[in-house]
Design brief:
This protein is 33% helix and 16% strand. The protein is α/β, with parallel strands linked by helices and 203 residues long. The protein has a single domain, classed as 3-Layer(aba) Sandwich (Rossmann fold). The protein has a six-stranded parallel β-sheet, with helices on both faces. Strand 3, helix 3 and strand 4 form a beta-alpha-beta unit. It is globular. It starts with 19 loop residues before the first strand and ends with a helix.
Amino acid sequence: MFSRRNFGKDKFLINNFMQKRMFIIHRWDGAPNKDWLPWAKEELEKKEYEVIVPEMPNTEEPKIEEWVPFLTKLVGEVNENTFFIGHSVGCQTVMRYLESIYPKKIGGIIFVAPWFNLTNLEDEESKAIAKPWLETPIDLEKVKNATDNIVVFVSDNDPFVPLSDKEIFESKLNAKVIVENNKGHFTGGDGIMELPEILILIK
């Protein structure tokens, strides 16, 4: 399980008594073989995790009503050896999933480039796809109840996510927010094919 004992050093400790499962949920228009996900899978498997990186349905046009049930079926039963890493809309998916399984508990979450608001969407089609995610409320108290261990990575130059969103994660989810320099939206297009910062948190 995650421990906050070393939070001052931005480090988690995870006990190794049982097989740990890590689900990594990709971004909008993402895939298991894009960005830093293949690297993360390989590195976490070295730490003896069972790592599941699914290809989410209809990735070019993600829908809440497709992604959340897909994740629910994939995960099955959860416990404190169940962990999640989300990227962008993958973070939204994880939050909505956790809301749906309240009051069950998990081990912890790492969010990469998560959002509650978006800027600079390119066209009307993108805005229409994003609208349900932006406007459908999430019960953040239920998300917070799932785990005491939430870490959020944001970038100071993300073109889509306002940096002010970090305050929501801090105040509503009691998350530890880490602001990275010049990482964009943490995609391969931003040059982010590895994310060693997350490994510092996981033992």
